[in-house]
UniProtKB/TrEMBL annotation:
Gene3D superfamilies hit by this protein: Jelly Rolls (2.60.120.10)
InterPro entries listed in its UniProt record: ChrR-like_cupin_dom, RmlC-like_jellyroll, RmlC_Cupin_sf
Organism: Klebsiella pneumoniae
ChrR-like cupin domain mapped to chain residues: 9-111
CDD domains membership: cupin_ChrR_1 (cd20303)
Protein's recorded name: Anti-sigma factor
Domain of life: Bacteria
Stored SUPFAM superfamilies: RmlC-like cupins
Length: 224
C-alpha cells in the first residue's frame, strides 16, 4: 500500500480530509496520512480506539512513536492520558489497549537501529517546558537525525525556517496556524520536504503544535 509515499512532495491533510478505515482489530480505526507497506509498514496515522478495545501483543521491527491526543491509552498496567509522548524502539513489543477510548498520532517504522531505549514524557508537567524565542517548547526527542518537540504559541507568534534540512512534519493539536491566505485548523497534518521552507503564524493563543524536523532524509530501519 502506498499513501503519500513521495517524500519530495509537500502534503497537507485537514480534518475535512480524514478517511477513517478499520484496522484488523475490531473497534480500532485509522486515518492513514502516509504509508509504505501493509500491516508491517513505514506509516504515519491517526488511530482511534473505542472504549474497551485492545490489540494483541505485537512487535514493531522499525519502532513506534505515539502522541496521545485524546482519552487514555494504556500498555499493560500503565495508563497514559492525553499529552503523553511515547517512543518504543525497534524490536520492542507491547500490548496496547484503552478502557476509556483514545485517539493517537502514531508513526511506525521510522526509527534508526541506534535507538534502543524506550522513552516516556508527560507534556502536561510544567517542568518539561521552557521558554525559547517567544514561545514555550516541550522537547520530546533529539538525535543526530531528528528533533521532536511540542510548541505552545500565542496569537501572532511566528514559526519560520527559510530552508529545512531533512524536512519537517507538523500536527496542529490545538488552535490553528495561518500560512499566507490559508488557515490550518486543529487536526491538520503538514509534511514539508527537505530543502523547502515554512512560514506560519499562530492564529489564536495557546496554539499547540507537534513539530518533527530533520527526519525525511534519514535511511529508515528495513521492515520485513
Amino acid at each position: 500500500m502506498l499513501i503519500n509515499h513521495d517524500f519530495t512532495r509537500r502534503v497537507t491533510v485537514s480534518c475535512d480530509d480524514y478517511y477513517w478505515v478499520h484496522s484488523p482489530q475490531t473497534g480500532i480505526d485509522r486515518v492513514m496520512l502516509d504509508r509504505i507497506g501493509g500491516e508491517q509498514a513505514r506509516a504515519t496515522s491517526l488511530v482511534r480506539y473505542l472504549p474497551q478495545t485492545s490489540f494483541p501483543e505485537h512487535q514493531h521491527p522499525g519502532g513506534e512513536e505515539i502522541l496521545v491526543l485524546e482519552g487514555q491509552f494504556s500498555e499493560g498496567n500503565r495508563d497514559y492520558p492525553a499529552g503523553w509522548y511515547l517512543r518504543n524502539p525497534p524490536g520492542s513489543s507491547h500490548q496496547p489497549h484503552s478502557n476509556k477510548g483514545t485517539q493517537l498520532f502514531v508513526k511506525l517504522g521510522q526509527m534508526t537501529k541506534r535507538e534502543t531505549v524506550p522513552l516516556r514524557i508527560d507534556s502536561r508537567a510544567p517542568e518539561n517546558w521552557r521558554e525559547d524565542g517567544g514561545m514555550s517548547v516541550c522537547p520530546l526527542f533529539e538525535s543526530a537525525e531528528e528533533r521532536v518537540c511540542l510548541l505552545r504559541m500565542d496569537s501572532g507568534s511566528l514559526l519560520v525556517a527559510p530552508s529545512l534540512k531533512g524536512g519537517a512534519e507538523l500536527l496542529i493539536v490545538e488552535g490553528n496556524l495561518i500560512e499566507g491566505n490559508s488557515i490550518h485548523a486543529k487536526g491538520s497534518w503538514i509534511r514539508i520536504p527537505s530543502g523547502h521552507g515554512m512560514a506560519f503564524i499562530a492564529g489564536i493563543d495557546k496554539t499547540l503544535v507537534y513539530l518533527k524536523e530533520g527526519h525525511l532524509d534519514v535511511e529508515q530501519v528495513t521492515l520485513p
